Amino acid sequence: MRLLLSILTIFTLAFTTTVMAQDKVEITVESNDRMQFDTSEIKVEAGQTVVLTLKHVGKLPKAAMGHNWVLLTQGTDIQEFGSAASKFANNEYIPEGTDNVIVHTKLIGGGQETTIEFTAPEAGTYDFICSFPGHYGMMKGKFIVE
Questions:
Q1: Which residue of 36, 42, 127, 139 has the smallest Cβ count within 10 Å?
Q2: CB 88 within 8 A of CB 63
Q3: What is the secondary structure of 5-49 as a DSSP string?
Q4: Cα–Cα distance between 143 and 146 in angstroms, integer?
């Protein structure tokens, strides 16, 4: 009986550890001085804890070539959002009072990195962009939640 309980306990702990490991995903996105992210698609599971690190591997300063990572709500018009964002330099190019942003990193320059942690939204496909003026045309991708 003790052996059976021991085996059950070990199995339960192993299963719990496996499930817990799947509850959190770590993602690194690199940006550069050529206005590019190194990925255009990220896949996660609904409700999963996402730890996203944005690394700016370029050399230019934030004022000249700043980058952020902005996850937009479904249906947000990227052009309209990007145009509005360009007016908010004092808020790192995130429009104040907007309902279009799920989460975003801070704005960083060459050689810097920043990390955010958030819960993946409900299943669906979301856009992510860099909201620095003019960057959203090239620095964009799909955040797919399964």
A1: 36
A2: no
A3: HHHHHHHHHHHHHHHHHHTEEEEEEEE-TTS-BS-SEEEE-TT-E
A4: 10
CB 121 within 8 A of CB 50: no
CA distance 146 to 138: 25
**Euclidean distance between CA atoms 66 and 93, whole angstroms:** 10
**Over the stretch 20-53, which tens digit does the pLDDT of each residue have?**
447 999 999 999 999 999 999 999 999 999 999 9
The H-or-E segment that residue 3 falls in is: helix 2-22
State the residue for tokens 């995130």: 94
pTM assigned to the model? 0.85
User: Pairing mode, if any, of strands 70-72 and 41-44?
Assistant: unpaired
Instruction: Provide φ and ψ at 6, rounded to 5°.
Output: -65, -45
Q: How confident is the model at residue 15 (pLDDT cuts 50, 70, 90)?
A: very low
